[in-house]
Structure prediction request, 528 residues.
Amino acid sequence: MEKKNGILSKIFIGIIMLFFYAPIFYVVFFSFNSSKSLTKFTGFSLKWYESMFQNRPIMDAIWYTVACAVIATVVSTIVGTITAIGLSKSKKVVREFVNQVNNLPMLNPEIVTAIGLMLFFTSLRIQTGFLTMVLAHIAFCIPYVILSVLPRLRRLDPNMAEAALDLGCTPWQAMWKVIIPQIKEGIIAGALVAFSMSFDDFVISMFTTGPGVTNISIYVYGSVKRVNPTVNALSALIVYVITIVLILVNVVPMIRDRRRAKDNVLE
Amino acid sequence: MKNFSKLIYPYVIWMTIMIIVPMLMIVLYAITVRGNDVLTLQFTLGNFLRFFEDSIFPSVLWRSLKMAFFTTIICIAVGYPAAFVMAKMKPNNAAMCVLLVTLPMWINMLVRTYAWRGILTRISLSSEINVYIGMVYNFLPFMILQIYTSLSKIDPNLIIASHDLGANDRETFLRVILPLSLSGVVSGITLVFLPAVSSFFIPKLLGGGQYVLIGNLIEEYFISTGDWNFGAAISLIMAIIILISMYVTRKLDKETPEAND
Prediction:
């Protein structure tokens, strides 16, 4: 891959980026529109933001989305990590079996997983609502956590944990002090995937939630029939939050590295 | 060390209840008569017969498969060159491009799809094209990233070697780069085709309700009509077709490296 890119390939990449970002900028722009129109910009106004913050269903949806994502991330990260550690010490047959079953929700269309859970909850006469939605989120997040932790464990020297045990650690201490610190990155990556999967989920939430419990995706889906510029403000808000978080995640380590490099030079 | 392996027991129980049992529930509902009690199950194949004997359902299934197929083709046709250009960039620029491709993926899919409505009402295309735009928009990043990953893993020495051995650019691409990047294309296909077949909010949000795909049918039978047995049968038919196509794609992927040996 040593050849340089010509002007045409630069234009090509530019068009793709335009395709990716045009709708996002469009919706952010029109969230400041003073009229209801999605096509005519009549003047600058913050009224859709105001009505968003006063809109009870939207605020509830944001709250349910965040609460659900936090609970699902914490539970699935803990369970997924513990299971991955167990799997790395299990027989190959057991590991293969668990992996195959875990693959089911990842290979199956989301809607199939979703209706399976819905049928399951209603057959047990469990009232669907926030609890069933969280349980469903935990169920589809755990396989992703296992998937991101397991490769780290495979690279781990098995003698380390043995040595810890020989030196008098309890198995619990061996796990906390020897194994977990070495697979920390895998755990963090798994937790991030779990959080974003849960935060963005629509299909599974839609089928497993009950009356009165709506997340952001379900709210947007439900409000498309009428023109509702408040949704523009909500979309724009999500874009702002994501952009700020991603900038922090990408820029903070860069600044830290630079500072560290500077410190090294001064020393 | 063996006692660590006991750590998986809680999850095996959870997995059985939350993954295996729900799958069996779908099968159970699909092969029983509507309005059954658990104690008086009445088995039937009528749900499947009803699907295939109808004039609408098979054509909706066919339309969904066709749509997912062409979405995948478009994603490869656009995504491969894009990934190829990115792989040739300087590391910093390439990292920047990867970030730019990833960034929209962090934004909620519904919100991203909704965002197209303004532009699409402005340029007023047919609802079919609108749905295509929504599909490609949602799934193209997956394809680009998969292909880019496999391209950037190629050892540059292989390309130099290929040139040294007298191959021109075209031959190097066809005989070295393309075969080595096919695994990325295949995993890209899995990430595009699968969600595209079953997608139901893209046609609903951008197709203006006139464009029905198989996912919309399933949603309708579960949410509005409440005929869960027939809905379960439709989803089972879709799941089986998808599993078969995934199996074929993976088989193709496994065969390609052998062909190069």
Notes: The domain at 45-260 of chain B is CATH 1.10.3720.10 (MetI-like fold). Residues 134 and 202 of chain B are 6 Å apart (CA to CA). Residues 56-88 of chain B form the longest helix (33 residues).
